Amino acid sequence: MPVDSDVQAALQSLGPQLKRYREGAQLTVAAVAKAVGVGRQYIYLVEAGTANFTIETLVKYLRACGVPFEEFLRGMRAGDISPAEQRHRQMLNIIHKSDIADLVKGIEVNLEAISEKALRLVKARASPRPESGVGAGSTEGPTREGHHRKKRRAG
After folding, report:
1. Domains along the chain?
2. Partners of 142 in the beta sheet?
3. Residues in the chain with pLDDT < 50?
4. Are residues 37 and 60 in contact, defined by beta-carbon separation less than 8 angstroms?
């Protein structure tokens, strides 16, 4: 029976993610295959996104890699998040759970402003900067031939 295109797309997305979990746990294909109870070739097919595996296989695979199923469903392992980001998430969750509209709106406005500033800074740092003192009209710096000009002293 052919695999539905949406299922195939999901498998092709899951396979590489599972491989990253295995590699992150520093496990071999053989070690995961043994833990799951399947052959190595099947794990290769799972990681390639071509095996239509069961939830049981997925749960055993994740367990072998030390990834709780609930964290997998959330899409992120707690260990992948820096302590600072964990604190930020906790603070934001407290604010959102407070259900105080003015407080939530204030945080949104401030975060938006901070995010915009961060984006501008990242963009500015990524753009090339002209070298100071060298270039058109400069009296000091390398010439096309690689020689340095001497700065003339004013008078």
Report:
1. 5-78 (1.10.260.40), 83-126 (no CATH)
2. 148
3. 135-141, 143, 145-146, 148
4. yes
Phi–psi pair at 129, nearest 5 degrees: -110, 140
Give CA torsion, residues 117, 123, 124, 125, to 10 deg.
Answer: 110
Q: Which residues pair with 149 in a beta bridge?
A: 141
CB of 59 within 8 A of CB of 73?
no
**What residues contact 126, with CB distance under 8 A and at least 6 apart?**
none
User: Which residues face 148 on adjacent strands?
Assistant: 142
Q: What would the DSSP string read from start to end of 78-93?
A: GGGS-HHHHHHHHHHH
Cα dist from 102 to 93, 105, 110, 112, 113, whole Å? 15, 5, 12, 15, 17
User: pLDDT tens digits, residue range 23-44?
Assistant: 988 999 999 999 999 999 999 9
pTM to 2 decimal places: 0.49
What's the pLDDT score for residue 138?
Answer: 46
